[in-house]
Write a structure and sequence with these properties.
This protein is mainly alpha-helical. The protein is elongated, with a radius of gyration of 31 Å.
Length: about 140
C-alpha cells in the first residue's frame, strides 16, 4: 500500500511528530509549570497514580494468595524424618560452616565456638529442616 501525499493521515502524522519533538525539546520546568495550571492534567495524574497503586496491590494480593496456597500444601505434608545427630557431628558441621563463612548462617551464628551440645544439635537440625543443609548429608 503506497501512501498518498494528499492523504490527510500523512499530514496528521507529520503534525503529531512535530508536536512530540517540540514536547521533548521543551525544558522539564516549563512542562511542569504548564501542567500545574491544567486541572485535567492534575486529575489524570492522580488517576494514573491510583491505578498504579491498585495494580501493585492486586499483584501483591495475588502473590499472597499463591503463598498461602503453597503454605497450605506444605503444611499438609507429613513432617520430614530427620536422623539424630550426635553432638560431636553437630559441632563438626557448625565448624565447617563457620570456617566457610557460609551465608546460610546469620552473623550471630557465625561465632559459634562456645555453644552447648544441645544447641549445636538443634541448630544443625534446624538448618536441615530449613533446607540450608542437605538432609542427605553424611553425618
Amino acid at each position: 500500500m503506497t501512501s498518498n501525499a494528499n492523504d490527510p493521515r500523512v499530514e496528521l502524522n507529520k503534525i503529531a511528530k512535530l508536536l512530540v519533538e517540540d514536547m521533548f525539546n521543551t525544558p522539564d520546568a516549563e512542562l511542569l509549570q504548564e501542567a500545574t495550571k491544567d486541572e485535567s492534567l492534575k486529575e489524570a495524574g492522580i488517576s494514573a497514580k491510583n491505578a498504579y497503586q491498585k495494580a501493585i496491590q492486586d499483584v501483591g494480593a495475588k502473590r499472597l494468595q499463591a503463598a498461602r496456597v503453597a503454605m497450605t500444601s506444605v503444611n499438609k505434608q507429613p513432617p520430614s524424618v530427620h536422623r539424630h545427630v550426635d553432638a560431636l557431628t553437630a559441632h563438626k558441621i557448625i565448624a565447617k560452616l563457620t570456617a566457610a563463612n557460609d551465608s546460610s548462617l546469620t552473623l550471630a551464628a557465625r561465632n559459634l565456638n562456645n555453644i552447648s551440645d544441645k544447641e549445636a544439635i538443634e541448630l544443625v537440625m534446624e538448618l536441615v529442616e530449613l533446607g540450608a543443609i542437605d538432609k542427605d548429608i553424611q553425618f
